[in-house]
Design brief:
Length: 233
């Protein structure tokens, strides 16, 4: 579904991604693991068109995506839940969700709104509440729900567990699994490697902008380097 081939991405003179290649197949959850500064967020921003690679190509379903404007990336079927949620703080929950469907003109928006409320009942309870007054967990639910309102075929998730209590982390990851089972392919950036690998099919490990390991979730969970560096063993 998605293929990155030899991406080199820079911030000015800083070489942030070095020859990064990876693949996300239709129907999968693929985890992208690594420490702070490894290049995980940069990878997602490059896929979304927020950064342009100096070298390399991005393909989505055999069509070149490299250099596509961010709004056209959304229209091609990619949703992005950024690190830090980035909701519209002064808008209500409903208004935030409707903003997620801004490129759509079909009749299914109301049905997708109900789908989000089924996934996140808390959002329906707070549908008229100003988003900036929500708890951190509720804001994360809203950020995911807003992306789903675009009806993406591929969902990019950047650190969905950041700053959340353990019970909310489990709830968010249960929902990510449910979204995937409903047919959405997911590329998941996450520092909580144990949780990520518990729901992922495959994964990649980034270090200083390069892919250093890849394999099935089971293989990575059993890898001694991964266990030492990311699983606290």
């Amino acid at each position: 579904m998605l293929r990155l081939d030899g991406l080199d991405v820079y911030y000015g003179q800083i070489h942030a991604l070095r020859d990064v290649s990876l693949e996300v197949r239709s129907g999968e959850i693929v985890a992208l693991l690594g420490n702070n500064g490894a290049g995980k967020t940069t990878t997602l921003k490059t896929i979304s068109g927020l950064l342009v690679p100096r070298q390399g190509t991005i393909h989505l379903e055999d069509r070149v995506l490299t250099g596509t404007a961010p709004h056209d990336v959304v229209s091609r079927g990619i949703g992005h839940v950024p690190e830090g949620r980035r909701i519209f703080n002064r808008l209500t929950v409903r208004e935030n969700l409707v903003m997620g469907a801004f490129l759509r003109n079909d009749s299914g928006v109301a049905d997708d709104l109900q789908r989000v409320f089924t996934l996140f009942p808390r959002l329906q309870e707070r549908v008229t509440q100003v988003a900036g007054t929500l708890s951190g967990g509720e804001q994360q639910m809203l950020a995911i729900g807003r992306a789903l309102m675009g009806r993406p075929r591929l969902l990019l998730l950047d650190e969905p567990s950041m700053g959340l209590a353990p019970v909310l982390v489990e709830q968010i990851f249960d929902t990510i699994g449910a979204v995937n089972r409903q047919g959405t392919t997911i590329l998941l950036v996450e520092q909580n490697a144990a949780m990520a690998l518990s729901i992922a099919h495959r994964g990649y490990v980034l270090e200083t902008g390069s892919v250093v390991l890849s394999g099935t979730a089971a293989e990575l969970s059993e890898n001694a380097e991964v266990r030492r560096a990311y699983l606290g063993e």
